[in-house]
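Sharing a chain and its predicted structure for anyone who wants a worked example. Both blocks are below, sequence first, C-alpha cells second.
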Amino acid sequence: MIRHVIQPVSHGKRARLWSARVRLDGWPKARTYPLRVTDKRVAQQKMETLVRELEKEAAGIIAPKLMRDAAQTPISEHLTAFLVDLRVKGRSVATLGKYRNCISKLCERCRWVMVRDITAQSFCDWRARSGLRPKMLNNVFGAMCSLLHWMEQQQLLVANPLRHVQKVTNNAGPFRRALSPVSAQSLLDAVPFHRATVYLMVLYTGLRRSELNGLKWEDFELEASPPKMQVPSSISKNRKASVHYLRPEAVSALRDYRSIDAKPSDYAFRGRVPRPSTVRNDLERAKIPLVDEHGRRVDLHALRTTFGTMLAANGVSLQSSKSLMRHSDVKLTLKVYTDESHLPLQHALDTLPSFTVPKPAAQLTALSGVVLSVKQSETVAEGRNGERLQNSDRVAVSRENAAGVVSSGRGKLVGPGRFELPTSCTPCKRATRLRYGPSKRTVTKAPG
C-alpha cells in the first residue's frame, strides 16, 4: 500500500492545497485525491479517513463515495441531469416533457425526496389506491425505471429498487377503433373543406398531429411523377426521414387547399389541424359515435389506425404496412394499428380450395372392400345347407379374399351345416379355409 500527502506541481509552481496519493493492494497504479486543505497535519488526518473508506469500499462494506453522495442528493437534481442527457441524445421535446411530468408527479404522490426514499412497497401502495388505468400506470412506472436505470449506468445507484416490480396487466386491448370506409366518407362530407383535407391526408398517409403541424409546402412534390411528400427527420417521431407517395385524390385536394400566394417555406397545415374538441364535434355532425360498445373511441389518431387497417384489409403485405406506418416493430402494426373487426374474414375463407367428403356408402366400400350382403349370405347358406345363418355368423370378406371367392365361383360344403370358402394369402400364398357352423366358427390353416 502507498499513501502520502503531496502538493502537486503545475507549470513549475507548487500548489497551495494538499492532495493524497494512494494505492491500495490490488490497484494497478496510484490515484490522487484532492484534500482541499492548506495545513499538512489536517491533510494527513483526512488522508487516513480517506484510506479507511477506500478499504471498506474495496471490501464491500460500504458503497462507493459517488453512490453515497448520490443518495444524499434530491431526486429533482438527478431528474434534471437525466433530462439534459436525453436532450443531448436527441430526444424530442414531447418525450422530455413526458418524463418530467410523470416522474415529478410520482415522486410527489409517493413522497419521495431522496433516492433512499424509493421503495417497491411505497410504489405498490400508491399504485393500488391511485385509481388510474393500467396503461397510465405502466407509463409512469416505465418513466421512473428509465431514470433509475440511467442512474445505474452512471454508477450513482447500486441497483434499481423497483427492479422486482411487475407491470400491471392490461387486458383492455386497443382503446382506439378504425373507421369503416363508409364512416370515413361521411366524416369528410360533414366537415369544412380545409378540415376534410387534413383528415384525408391522415387517412392516406397516417401522419401524426405533430408531423402535420411541421410540414411545409417545400416538402410536397405535387408535380412529380408520381407525386410524393417527404417527412423530414426533424419532425418525424422516429427521427428518420421518410417519403410518402400521394394518391390522386390527395393531390387534387392539396392543390385546391393551397393558397395562391403560399411560399415554399410556409407551413402547410399549422393552425388548421383540428383540436380534440373539434374532432368530437365533427364526429357528432357526421353521426359517428365517439365511443362504441367495447369502449373504443375515435380521435384524430384513430384515422392513423384506419390507415393501417385499410392496408391490412386490402391485402398489403405486412412488411409494406410496417414501412408505410413507419414502425420499428411489426408487432405494433399488428396489435395496435390493425382493427380486426374491419378485416374481410369471410372473403379470406372464400379464397380457400374446395374439399368434399365422400358419401357414407361410397366411403365404406372404399375402406372395407366388397361386403357380402345379408341377402346373399342367406341365399348361399340356404342353397348349400338349407338353413339360415344367424346374424353372428355373417362375415364380411376383405377385397382380396372376396376377389378369390369371385374367381373360384363356388365354395365347398364340409360336413353337415358347414360351408368352406377357399381363399389365398398374397404374401405367403398359403391357402386358408374359413369354416362356419350353426353355432361355432373356426379358422383352420392348411399345412404349409
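Comments welcome. Residues 46 and 148 are 32 Å apart (CA to CA).
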